[in-house]
Amino acid sequence: MKEYIPSKIEEKWQEIWDKEKVFETPQRSEKEKFYNLVMFPYPSGTLHVGHVKNYVIGDIVARYKRMKGYNVLHPFGYDAFGLPAENAAIKNKIHPEKWTFKNIEIIKSQIKKIGISYDWAREVITCTESYYKWTQWIFLKLYENGLAYKKKAAVNWCPSCQTVLANEQVVDGKCERCGTEVTMKHLEQWYFKITDYAERLLNDLEKLEGWPENVKTMQKNWIGKSTGAEIEFPVDGLDMKIKIFTTRPDTLWGVTFMAIAPESPLVETLVTEDRKEELSKFLRKVSLEDRFKRTSLEAEKEGFFLGRYAINPVTKEKIPIYVANYILYEYGTGAIMAVPAHDQRDFDFAKKYNLPIRVVIDNPESSIDASKMEKAYEEEGVMVNSGPFDGIRSTKALGKIIEYIEKEGIGNRSVQYKLRDWLISRQRYWGAPIPVVYCEKCGVVPVPEKDLPVKLPKDVEFLPTGQSPLSLDEQFLNTTCPKCGGPAKREADTMDTFVDSSWYYLRYVNPKLEDKPFDKEDVNYWMPVNQYIGGVEHAVLHLLYSRFITKVLHDLGYLDFEEPFENLFTQGMIYKDGWKMSKSKGNVVSPDEMIKKYGADTLRTYILFMAPPEKDAEWSDAGIEGVNRFLKRLWNNVYSILPKIKDVKAENIQLKDKSEKDLRRKLHRIIKKITEDIEGGFKFNTAIAGLMELNNSLSEYLNKSRELNLPLLRELVEKLTLILSPFAPHMAEEIWHDLGNETLIVNEKWPSYDESALQVDEVTIIIQINGKVRGKILAKVDTNEEDIKKLAFENPKISSYLKGKDVVKVIYVKNKLLNIVVK
Ligand code: ANZ
Ligand code: ZN
């Protein structure tokens, strides 16, 4: 019998798929399109099995959809610019480009060995000139439309990566990449105006029915929409007003002080002469505090009285103005009206500085005594001490209060978002140069499209110094102004790698197009992506940026659709020894090693069998051994009968007995189950369990020596091989071929199941006597009670129990149980 040796068959089939170009996708087809996309990797190292999980999930979907008759686009590429590759290259003392392409080569060979069905003709590498030319083009389009701008602002600075970071790249005050605490710097930087799209990015989340709720919630919170009012407070003794933003205009009568962010220029304007010196001490102290910690709910509230008072516009009371560490300069107006009775931060502050606490929203259950309050009452309630609004339910009053404020001319309705503009310039080397020049005469001048790409020079001292490496390259830097022809200097910053990845899914459609980033008609045919698969860590980074860029390109007339990804699947991680796999922990499992030991089919099948694919799972050597044994057993079962069924057709199948009927029923039940498991939410682990169950039934049938039903076995082996093929495609091709087929199994149709074969026609009826099980009988489904009774009483074992007894009562539960009561 032919032995199962994966190394003998896997490479062979991979070469055949390659040679026959089976996975190359025609640009158009009669078939319905299915765009299946996995998040492309940073080629900053080689792949471990955690990465592979992403691609294996994608491959099951792609192969399944192909078999279901779709024109499947399943491309692959590399997010090849950016910090990860650059940092790794520096560590390894090698040029980032060399390092990147070396990794790309290794990753590609790793993936080919796993047998993933990518259309390699569409490979996209973001650090190639033919790609980043169009990344620069996208920058120009945003610039031309007022969506890319430069401004000086306090920015996040990673002292280790030596570059600024976007807010999205700061996680808990630390650099998303390296974990170093982020500091602040005042720098002039380039931004994309994603805030213009805040409302649409929020509202359109509702359309994304095929996205996981948690990802949508993360985006929603990140966008952070708040509705309320802006209200102006006149300053006592100065001809000016302080504008605040509040979500609780219903608490306006309870304001007992105001607070301003330390960074606000208002602080200098408001402070009285005698308090200036002490103020600067306070500001210096705050500037040393971490901005993320400083504004957290738990942080110690600290402030400084500016010596100045404002007037509450409704009560006309004088209230002190403070500068306080818990006020963010970048949110709202950078100033607040403080209501200690109803806001915990204000409450803490008021307690510390002995400021009055005035209740204006009373608890309808039990009235609040301001002098006894231990924390702020933040819920809704009945308005009190609030002039014309006394006695009204606070939630009901909100709209009316805003109307009142507008009528009185002291403020107006306002909506605020937490979302900030996307900071896209980086002071690092390995990225797409920002295509603008600075001319002494003309100022900022965008590079004309015909001059793209602005090439990234190769021979550059790129070690991070905090200064853009390109600014040290005179040859790159000095140029002529496209407008006036005079001397000009190039922008030396490069673009955030998230700009590269915000549009790569469009480039896969026309990866080689030279005069356009993509063809409108082609993109409108293929997009949106039907299924996107990747990690949840990109929820507010890549996934938000891509939605934004898609909407911009839509608005500029380049795309007909507004959302890039119709369905999103976020896979769980693979852990080893309780930890996320990482080189530094030394717990990385390499796919190459596993393939050498067990073959790609085992690796693929095990990765999916470990757990539901959306769940995290722990790698187990025993687990992969077990899956390998299953595939061997399946192979051995098949090859033990292969010579006998090779020339048999799966036609005119006659089922002689129950065991044959059971076997065929099992086959069709499993086809149905696996189809439903794949369609109904990626339940690959239970699908594989189904394959195991079917194989066990086959073993059982073959183990009982009897005359084999060859047409039945032919049908079983054929269909089993077909449903096995997305998971273990190499083994499936081999069996398919050895069955005498001249086609490739990848080009075959997914089998349907025979509804009639699913029907059970015999049932086992349990016979009880006085509640004790005394035997079983086989009967046709739905046999009536009389006939069952007859069968039971005729059964020799049962009749021996009944001898000499009186039957008092017989209870029959249809198709299940017959209970005989005797005395
Ligand atoms: C008065 C008030 C009374 C407030 C009350 C809350 C409760 P969200 O929901 O996050 O939008 N706020 C406004 N701008 C701020 C800033 N730059 N830094 C720190 N806090 C700021 O929160 C809006 C509320 O946060 C606003 O409503 C304001 O406090 C505060 F019983 O105004 B509120
Ligand atoms: Zn000029």
Automatic annotation (TrEMBL):
It comes from the Bacteria. A motif ('HIGH' region) lies at residues 41-51. Keywords: Aminoacyl-tRNA synthetase, ATP-binding, Cytoplasm, Ligase, Nucleotide-binding, Protein biosynthesis. Residues 419-620 form the Aminoacyl-tRNA synthetase class Ia domain. Transmembrane segments: none annotated. Residues 40-181 form the Methionyl/Leucyl tRNA synthetase domain. CDD domains: Anticodon_Ia_Leu_BEm (cd07958), LeuRS_core (cd00812). PANTHER family: LEUCINE--TRNA LIGASE, MITOCHONDRIAL, LEUCYL-TRNA SYNTHETASE. This is Leucine--tRNA ligase. It comes from Thermosipho affectus. The lineage of its organism: Bacteria, Thermotogati, Thermotogota, Thermotogae, Thermotogales.
